[in-house]
């Protein structure tokens, strides 16, 4: 061995020691599925999770003066003053929950709901609130500094899935060079675009021609990876090319067509003005999970950013959202697990629903509610204690109040705590992904 | 053991500086890239799409649906914008910085449409070479890898920017095999003759090649 070789070996060893090990999956096979939902725009928590029906401090409750109660299933009128009526909160006996009139059909599943109230957001910016809710970190300037929770879960439990992480109108972020490249979220704008993208004519190329092209490209990417100093990008492309033929298969395209989904899952309200797209995404989620295709799905509902007179329809928009979630859970209850023959999908599917923040307790001059640095979140998971509410807000300002004793003392729950608790339920060490946040063990079964 | 320690001592006591090589100018240190090296990154989707549109005849975005229309080759841009990695500020949809399978599927769909339509235009019209968009070579029977090399080099330079002679060994053979397989499948007359379909397949592979999308 000459001196140069010796130096190279020593240098290589030192470099290897200095490198951070990649956060690759633990190699664990799982049969759990995850659905992360973003209620975009900022929801009014006083209409569902943290109901208010009295004028107190800043609070101007939802009433017949500012809300259209006509189509709300759980609006039981209560006198506010004069000819104005507000609502009677729902207090189901078998739970500790107190729910507002916009809860919709989700009321039937109340004993499976875990509600987190008084989430300290410290922001009223849509971008920042959204990022904070799904990553546990505020934006740094305009930059998202951490991966979203779906990526964390997919990186640990979904790397071997055909599609580890699929997102539709959901703010997924993949940050860092230590994650498995296979879990880069697959972004789809709409369910229709998925089918169009995968559609191929047979008038020119045949499927075998495309398979040959894909094989050449996979081979090219692998060979480039072998020669490259930084092979990850080429390896990523090779694995993506490998997955392509299964996506282009015909039964897949047929199953995910809009009509096919609507026919197979007719119980969703696809005609909802505000949440029709979300309902379609929910149907897509059920179909994708039943086929064991995706480990983690993120999708969004919209229509909640109601600063002016459109606030009158906010409660109905929320109800449509919760109706769609309830329909999805009921379908998961009735759908066999694709791997565990004796189980239903819902026994192994974990749903987290978040929003950007909540809306002001007071009504503004335009008749709407603006952004407010408080929030609620909803978990429906067999790993969480159902029919329970954690965290709280103060009675006059609806701001996060001290509720849990953390290692740094009592304080309100914040999004990083919720995310840490959520991923820890599956044996994942939150410190691998989250800078902040502490597990709230009381939430877990 | 003592010998290893001695060797280590000798090695570590020497200054770890590369000796000038014969290629270095006199009294100059050898050339070395000292900047931090990162792995290849995805070409921004806008730049990538612009390259696509340039290659296929300086098309404007609105020309693509017109050019590629028919037989479900391509329809409209709107549905594909997110899949191609472009941001949508209307719904706060961020720019994709990493490729994914859906993006490859979309680029594949677009590439296939443009390669086929260019083949129809360039070959069927018997255009002079200088007026062709993509297939700027004479269409001759290709039965050997040597006969394949020259026209393949034209496409290789167009899409990857350098001659195939400088490419990794084996690439030429792999693409020749692709050419042969597609050609044999389309031996009987279809919408395009077998050799034109085979060149369109080679074009489709090159336009979605890993080196095309990364820098």
Helix-strand layout with pairing:
The complex is a heterodimer of chains A (445) and B (215).
Chain A: H1 3-18, E1 33-39, E2 77-81, E3 84-87, E4 113-116, H2 126-135, H3 149-157, E5 163-168, E6 186-188, H4 191-198, H5 207-227, H6 232-248, H7 250-255, H8 258-264, H9 276-290, E7 294-301, H10 314-334, E8 349-355, E9 358-359, E10 371-372, E11 377-380, E12 388-390, E13 392-393, E14 400-401, E15 404-406, E16 409-411, H11 415-424
Helix pairs in contact in A: 5-6, 9-10
Chain B: H1 2-13, H2 45-55, H3 63-67, H4 101-124, H5 145-160, H6 171-185, H7 194-207, H8 210-213
Helix pairs in contact in B: 4-7, 5-6, 5-7, 6-7
Into which percent range does the helicity of residues of chain A fall?
25-40%
| Distance between the ends of chain B | 47 Å
The string of secondary-structure elements of chain A, in order, is: HEEEEHHEEHHHHHHEHEEEEEEEEEH
CATH superfamily of chain A: Alkaline Phosphatase, subunit A
Largest sheet of chain B: none
Give the mean pLDDT of chain A. 90
- Please state the structural category of chain A: alpha/beta
Share of residues in helices of chain B: 40-55%
Radius of gyration of chain A (CA) equals 24 Å
List keywords for this structure.
heterodimer, A: 445 residues, alpha/beta, Alkaline Phosphatase, subunit A, 8-stranded mixed beta sheet, 11 helices, 15% strand, B: 215 residues, mainly alpha
């Amino acid at each position: 061995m000459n001196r140069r070789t010796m130096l190279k070996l020593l240098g290589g060893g030192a470099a290897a020691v200095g490198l951070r090990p990649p956060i690759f999956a633990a190699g664990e096979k799982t049969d759990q599925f995850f659905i992360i939902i973003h209620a975009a725009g900022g929801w009014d928590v006083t209409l569902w999770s943290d109901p208010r029906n009295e004028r107190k401090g800043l609070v101007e409750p939802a009433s017949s003066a500012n809300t259209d109660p006509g189509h709300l299933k759980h609006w039981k009128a209560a006198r506010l003053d004069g000819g104005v009526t507000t609502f009677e909160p729902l207090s189901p006996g078998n739970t500790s929950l107190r729910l507002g009139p916009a809860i919709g059909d989700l009321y039937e599943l109340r004993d499976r709901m875990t509600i987190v109230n008084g989430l300290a957001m410290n922001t009223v910016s849509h971008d920042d609130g959204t990022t904070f809710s799904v990553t546990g970190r505020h934006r740094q300037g305009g930059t998202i500094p951490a991966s979203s929770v779906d990526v964390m879960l997919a990186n640990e439990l979904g790397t071997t899935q055909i599609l580890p992480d699929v997102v539709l109108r959901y703010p997924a972020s993949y940050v860092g060079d230590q994650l498995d490249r296979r879990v880069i979220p697959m972004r789809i704008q709409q369910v229709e675009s998925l089918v169009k993208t995968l559609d191929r004519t047979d008038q020119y190329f045949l499927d075998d021609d495309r398979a040959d092209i894909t094989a050449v490209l996979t081979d090219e990417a692998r060979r480039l990876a072998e020669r490259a100093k930084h092979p990850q990008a080429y390896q990523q492309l090779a694995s993506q090319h490998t997955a392509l033929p299964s996506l282009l298969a015909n039964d897949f395209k047929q199953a995910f067509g809009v009509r096919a989904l609507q026919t197979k899952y007719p119980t969703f309200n696809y005609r909802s003005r505000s949440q029709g797209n979300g309902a379609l995404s929910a149907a897509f989620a059920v179909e994708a999970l039943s086929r064991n295709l995706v480990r983690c799905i993120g999708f969004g509902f919209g229509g909640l950013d109601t600063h002016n007179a459109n606030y009158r329809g906010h409660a109905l928009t929320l109800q449509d959202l919760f109706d769609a979630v309830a329909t999805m859970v009921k379908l998961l209850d009735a759908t066999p697990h694709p791997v565990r023959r004796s189980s239903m999908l819902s026994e192994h599917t974990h749903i987290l629903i978040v929003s950007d923040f909540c809306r002001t307790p007071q009504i503004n001059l335009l008749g709407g509610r603006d952004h407010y640095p408080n929030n609620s979140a909803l978990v429906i998971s067999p790993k969480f204690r159902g029919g329970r509410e954690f965290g709280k807000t103060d009675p006059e300002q609806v701001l996060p109040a001290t509720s849990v004793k953390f290692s740094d003392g009592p304080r309100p729950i914040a999004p990083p705590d919720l995310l840490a608790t959520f991923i820890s339920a599956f044996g994942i060490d939150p410190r691998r992904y989250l800078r902040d946040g502490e597990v709230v063990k009381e939430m877990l079964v | 053991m003592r010998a290893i320690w001695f060797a280590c001592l000798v090695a570590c006591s020497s200054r770890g500086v590369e000796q000038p090589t014969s290629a270095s100018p006199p009294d100059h240190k050898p050339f070395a890239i000292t900047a931090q090296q990162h792995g290849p990154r995805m070409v921004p989707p806008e730049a990538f799409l612009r390259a696509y549109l340039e290659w296929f005849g300086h098309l404007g975005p609105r020309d693509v649906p017109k050019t590629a229309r028919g037989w479900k080759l391509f329809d409209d841009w709107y549905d594909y914008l997110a899949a191609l990695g472009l941001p949508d500020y209307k719904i706060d949809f961020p720019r994709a910085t990493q490729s994914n399978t859906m993006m490859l599927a979309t680029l594949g769909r677009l590439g296939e449409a443009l390669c086929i339509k260019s083949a129809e235009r360039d070959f069927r019209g018997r255009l002079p070479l200088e007026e062709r968009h993509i297939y700027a070579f004479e269409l001759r029977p290709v039965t050997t890898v040597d006969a394949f090399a020259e026209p393949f080099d034209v496409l290789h330079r167009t899409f990857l920017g350098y001659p195939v002679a400088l490419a990794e060994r084996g690439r030429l053979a792999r693409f020749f095999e692709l050419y042969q397989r597609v050609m044999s499948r389309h031996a009987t007359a279809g919408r395009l003759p077998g050799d034109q379909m085979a060149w369109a397949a080679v074009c489709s592979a090159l336009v979605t090649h890993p080196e095309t999308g990364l820098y």
